[in-house]
Amino acid sequence: MILNAYTLHDAKALVYNQPFFAANHPVAIRMVSDIASDTNTSIGRHPRDYTLYRIGTYDDQTGFFQPLEIREHVCDVITLVQPIPTPLFPKETA
To answer: In b/e form, how buried is each residue of 24-47, taking b as 16+ CB within 10 angstroms?
Structure first.
């Protein structure tokens, strides 16, 4: 099976994290979304700092990795985080 290779770029550390593999963009986005919703992770605490890129393909039958010449932007992680709802009329404090 041909899998896509993805990485998360950390804008504060100026590094690309270790690659991971997924069948397609929606699966990779779901994987990152799960991590981004966990505030016990750096990604969950700082989702604005991370961007998801596809960087190549991997054939699990041959072991061959084919990098892309230009990485493909998939999404900014902040777009995967559900905003915390704020009340329209906050309680007044006395």
So the answer is: eeeebbeebbebbeeeeeebbebb
User: Which tokens hold the place of 3?
Assistant: 């899998």
Q: How many Å apart are CA 62 and CA 1, to the nearest integer?
A: 9
Place of tokens 């006395």: 94
Residue with tokens 């690309």: 16
pTM exceeds 0.90 for this model: no
Does 94 have pLDDT greater than 70?
A: no
Rounded to whole angstroms, how far apart are CA atoms 4 and 56?
6
CA 41 to each of CA 20, 23, 82: distance values in angstroms, whole numbers, following the listed order: 17, 24, 16
Distance CA 25, CA 9 (A): 16
**What is the Cα–Cα distance from 1 to 60, expressed in whole angstroms?**
6
